[in-house]
Structures are given as structure tokens and as C-alpha cells.
Amino acid sequence: MNSPPSRRKKATSPASTDSTSVASSVNEDISQQEDPGSATITVTAVEVPELTQQEQSDRLHLERKVERAFFEAGKALAELRDRRLYRSTHRTFEEYCRDRFGHSRRQSYLLMDAAVVFDNLIEKCDQFDHILPTAEGQVRPMTKLEPQEQHEVWVKAVEQAGGKVPPARIVKNVVQQIMERTQVPNTYQLGEVCQILVKDNPELKGKGGCWAIVSAVNEFSCTVRMWDGEYSIGLQHLKSFNYLPQECQQMQSLSDRISRVYSDLLEETVKSLLQLLGKVNRPYLTAVEEKLLSVLESEYAER
Fold first, then answer.
1. How many angstroms separate the CA atoms of 266 and 59, rounded?
2. Where are the compositionally biased (Low complexity) regions (predicted)?
3. Based on the number of CB atoms within 10 Å of its own CB, is 191 exposed (0-12), middle (13-18) or buried (19 or more)?
4. pLDDT winner (highest mean) among 4-18, 183-197, 282-296
5. Residue 235 neighbours by CB under 8 Å, 6+ apart
6. 3-class DSSP state of 236
7. pTM: predicted TM-score of the whole model, two decimal places
8. Max Cα-Cα span within the chain
């Protein structure tokens, strides 16, 4: 007859005993508290050292460099243009900026215009409590205003921004209010060559960056002639190329030549080429462009 199996005690390791003991202790501590959620957690504070006087000076110096980056760029570009320091490698300032900096003509001139406005604001720096623009877009809306009006715009924009550097949106709104109040006169002249600024105007879609010639000067707009007809455009959507009278005449001649060839019935490739010629931001054609236009004139002008 077989004897019944003996019952052996399961051995318990010391580690298991210790962990059980710790868990029991924790449970016992929690059970003794009336509200476990009221347990206090002690956090050791990490002290952040204050900046030294030298570090504060370095910080201010670096902040000023960041704030003035676009201003310094605009001043440098203006000097490069005025002294024609590009002449050893490039025929025009526009070609130089495109090859050297990857700038379009508009980018370069926006930076130069912004630097002029920044210079005007620096004169009243104390009045603004040393709050100055930090980006080109913040001063762009002010470029058409007189220096005193620029000061007024900046003071009001800083106030509306709660004493901080105002975003471009606020500056633009203040400029619009002042323009409506003062009714800034239309200073464009017949025959002047302007660049089309599309901004938020869907009616000018596809015309951004194109040049146009002023054919009529209205109170708050200009009638301009482009390769495919005439358009009435608000002053906020125009920017003068500031060409010399002789250069304006050259562009007038170019406009007449393109208009004589252009037609909605042309092949798309031909229309695209003529439209590209309508965007050249210089008062002349290159040798290749001249040959292409001459070929199109001989092929289509008499039709």
C-alpha cells in the first residue's frame, strides 16, 4: 500500500521576503493615513544663478545684433549698390544680388528701404524706450510715409502691442489709419515704371513681380499698362522701380513691342515667354532675350 505524498514547505528566498516586508510596510503606512491624497512630497529646489554683470552686457549686445540683422543687411546692400562694388564680376546690381545672396531684386530693395526707415526710428529711440523693429516686415508698411509719420506709426504700434515689439499686422493697420487720415497724395507720374505687388489681392493673381507703366494717375490708384492690357491698381499694390527717365523710355519701348506681339490666341509656350519678359526687373533685355523677342516679332507681329 502506497503511502500518501508528503507536503513540503515552499522555500522563500530572502529577496522575496524583503520585498514582501517592504510592500507590507508601505501598505501599513498608507492604511494609517486618513487621506492618502494629502501625502506631502518634498521637492528640492534648484537654485538658478543670476547673470553676472558681464553676462548681462553680453546678452544685451547679442540681442541688439539679432534685432539689427536686417538693418545691417540693408545698409550693406545700399553701399554695395551705390559704390558699384559688384562691377568686376556682374553687369548689374540685381544679377549680383541673385548670384551672391540668392535675392530677388525685390528682396534686396525691401531690405534697403527698411534700413532707411530703421535709421529714422533710431533718432527717436529714447521715445520708444529702446523698442525698435526686429524684422524687415515690421517696417515695410512705413516705407511710403514721411519720417515724422513713421515715428508716429511706430509709437502707436508699440502702444497697441502692450509696450512690446509690434507684429507687422499691427504696424500695417496703424499705417492704413494714418494714410486714410492724411490722404497721402498720389506721387506717381505718367510713364513711371512700377512693380506689381500682389499681397492679398486675388484680382492680381499671376501679376506679382511684373512691371507696368503708369498711363493715368488717379487719387488713390493708378492705371497701368502691361503686356495684356490696362489695369487700375491701388497705390498699396505698386512700388516704383525708381528708374531714370531714359530707362523709363526704354521700358515703354519694350512694353510696346511685347503688346504688339501678345495675344490670347498665341501658343501657350509663346505666351509664357512674353509674360516672362514682362517680369524682367531691369530696364533692358539681354542679348539672348533680344534675339528671342525679335524672332517672335518677325513671326507674329504682322498677323
1. 61
2. 12-25
3. middle
4. 282-296
5. 144, 184, 186, 188, 220, 221, 222
6. helix
7. 0.44
8. 129
Q: Is 229 left (phi over 0), alpha (psi -120 to 50) or beta?
A: left
The closest alpha carbon to 178, from 149, 155, 154, belongs to: 149
Helix or strand (DSSP H, E) at 119: helix 105-122
Of 175, 107, 183, the C-alpha closest to 142 is: 175
Q: How many CB atoms lie within 10 A of CB 40?
A: 4
Q: Give the DSSP H/E element, type plus range, for residue 229.
A: strand 229-234
Name residues whose C-beta falls within 8 Å of residue 188's C-beta, 6 or more positions apart in sequence: 194, 214, 217, 222, 235, 238, 240
Give pLDDT tens digits for 85-110.
999 999 889 899 999 999 888 888 88
Beta bridge mates, 229: 226
Amino acid at 235: L
